[in-house]
Amino acid sequence: MYKLNDEKMFYDIADGQAVVINYVTGMYYGTTMLGSVVLDRLVKGNAPAEIAAAVKEIPGCPEDFAAELDRFIGRLQETEILVPGETVPGGGEPIEAKTAAEGFTLTLDEFAEVQDLILADPIHDVDVEQGWPIFREEE
């Protein structure tokens, strides 16, 4: 189904939170706890239908969650985080109800605060007096 666009993206889960960094643009992305579980399963190549079925087992899940998942996948493709890949078995394993404490809306938050630092070149952007990084004025 899908896989991480590893030509542009770095992905990790830390304390249950997914972090994705686009090392071409310097943008980084985060999501809710439930979004992190869903993203992790998508990155592993699990089928969206299996993931949706697992989420629907959480008490309070809306009937139309599959549409929410489709929208989220669309956003992940739009930002080039996900690209087509092979389907890998799994994705339907139970999900703890506490991961949906923030709700069932799957958001993808985009951040640019450290964009300059991520894109800085530690080899060439060094000055003996100023140190690293040197942020040059754009011409």
Précis, in short:
The protein is of the alpha+beta class.
Describe the protein:
With 139 residues, the protein is α+β, with helices and mostly antiparallel strands. Helices cover 28% and strands 17% of the residues. It has one domain. It contains four helices and six strands; from the N terminus they run E-E-E-E-H-H-H-E-E-H. The protein has a four-stranded antiparallel β-sheet, covered by helices on one side.
Annotate the secondary structure layout.
Layout: E1 2-4, E2 9-14, E3 17-22, E4 28-30, H1 33-43, H2 48-56, H3 65-78, E5 82-84, E6 109-111, H4 115-119
Antiparallel strand pairs: 1-5, 2-3, 3-4, 4-6
Helix pairs in contact: 2-3
* Residue share in helix: 25-40%
Backbone shape: globular
The count of helical stretches stands at 4
Radius of gyration: 18 Å
Tell me the fraction of residues in β-strands, as a range. Answer: 15-25%
Q: How would you name the oligomeric state of the polypeptide chains in this document?
A: single chain
Provide tags for this entry.
6 strands; 139 residues; globular; 28% helix; alpha+beta; four-stranded antiparallel sheet
